[in-house]
Structure formats: structure tokens, C-alpha cells
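== Fold encoding ==
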Amino acid sequence: MNCKIDTVIFDLGGVLVDWKPEYLYRKVFNGNEKKVRWFLDNVCTSAWNAEQDGGRTIEEAENY
């Protein structure tokens, strides 16, 4: 079977897929909302994530 992708959908507004980083980190921090909030506010911030999305390497991010 040979499939050809002919359509790509960008869900920038989160209409098709409900995704928030909290969903993942709640599992990582065993449901501890205080730890999740601290992590997202101090380690994996929106600005940090935007840099990653912009092409920054993991090595650069680790040294940030």
C-alpha cells in the first residue's frame, strides 16, 4: 500500500486537538499541581518553548 499525503492541517488554535503542557506534567509530577505550575513558570516557560519551536537545539536549551 502506497499512501500519499495530500493535506496538512495546522491546528494553531487548539480546535481539533486539546493540548496543554499541564496534561503531560501532571503525570510527570504525579498530579502535584504546585510542582507543575512551578516547573512551567520557571523551567519550561512559554518563552523557552517558543525558542525550541524556532529551531534552537537541545544543547543550546540545556545551556540556557
The two ends are 45 Å apart (CA to CA).
